[in-house]
User: What shape does this take?
Amino acid sequence: MSTASWVLVTMESWRGAFAAAQPLGAITAVVVGPRSLADEVADAGPVEVLWLDPADGVPAEAYGSPLAAVISAAGPRVVVATSDPVGRVLLGAASARLRAQLVPRVVGLALDGDTVLIHRAAVSGETIETLAGHGPVAAICDADDVPLQRSGPAPVNRLDLVAAPMVLVASEPIAVATGLEDAERVVSFGRGVRAKEDVALVRGLAEALDAELACSMPIADDLGWLEKSRYVGRSGNHIKPALYLAVGIAGAAQHMEGVRGARVVAAINSDPDARIFQTADYGIVGDLYEVVPALIAEVHK
Amino acid sequence: MKAIIVYKWARNAADAVVRTDGSIDWRNAKMSAGEDDPAALVVARKVAADSDGALIGLTVGDGDASWALARGVEQAFSVSDALSMADNAATAAVLAAAVRYLGDVDLVIIGDSKENPGVPVALAGDLGWPALMGVHSASMPAGQLQATRRVGEEEQTVSLPTPLVLGISADSDTDQVPGMKELLAARKRPLTKLTLAELGTAPGDLVSIGCRKPDVTRTRVFDGEPAQAAAQLVAALRAEGVL
Assistant: This one.
């Protein structure tokens, strides 16, 4: 049976995207990855799971074009994918075949008669805009993972597709500093720290809070004040401590990607307009050279 | 190898104003270099140099198109009457039409934007080319294109066919700001303006039917004397159960 909405599952955090598609009716799911992932998705109650298991050493993106042909042959009204690179590439190929309108940062979908209502985060998430889609719609979904009711299991049918000539030639583990990955608390510093000898001040705060010490990328990469295995950010450590305390860090998007999993983010910065104050839970606007000693004293009280 | 670097293809969301009712005032938000554009240009120049090939800049809209010309790109094209659109496929259709217009292109390199992450992939879809996103470096040793990206806790190197679209994610937000010499050189480099009519494309956009403010908790900021602010922060963190 062909359904009006399709969901592409390419990563473990797929439930938010699936839930976003549910108000539109019955779902066909395409799962790219291990069989266990396909079975998990089958339990969420799609009509069918089409499962694609990429060949060894072949990136999933290599199947973009043949998978797009499968999806466009079914002619769905809406295709939803997660925002990971693989999900987006597969969606981009399918979207073009369907001549769909493509909206990123979608947080919810609804039907109003023949119109698909697309709720999306706009202006860096400062507002939620509703767009009206009259033709096929492709949505990159940023909705948070939610628990889904078991309903199920749907049949899992394997897709055999021919890959484009992309080959994985090397795969290296990224160095992670011992203790940082599982740390409960992390104190991290950036360019607000003016000299290498001042690192001791921040280290003192980390010790007072029983926290691991980390830094932003320029501190490790350009200045070498801390080992490279200790920087947090897009290309460095991705950590999820209960507390992330950022000292003298401006809060570039690349940095904040590394602490997306943190429960509480606190920041100390002398610039009240620093970007980190847009995402932190708590902040102190002030000179870190005064605030850090005050914090150490307060913790020791 | 004929490579295209796509730059300044979206408005800077930081310059838009969200009014109290959630509606958006885009008037002051011009097309500007995205945060991944400088990194994309570095990768594009590296691949072009490795392959001894040509690198052409491509931009859309009303921004200053000399950005790439002042950063070492020898020639650029600008689709100057293209507007920024909510539909990422429509923006991609304009870029794809320009790539086809330029002809015989082997590689398109574009910033893998966080604000508009659908444009690079829709561009690949429109061209019917394979694509790889989230890439942080690429090279062309011995005539074979290779790109490196992070997947989970691994760094993967992938060997790729052409034609191809590569989406570049910047590791940091650094830009090599050009000096006076480069700015002067940029003025002499050819910048060709194209129109949507010349490209034979007339994209339509999605209709916005309203905005609302999301339910967000703002940062609780403590200011005042360091000792007092420190005491307030420590109390707040203890109340959260994280100290």
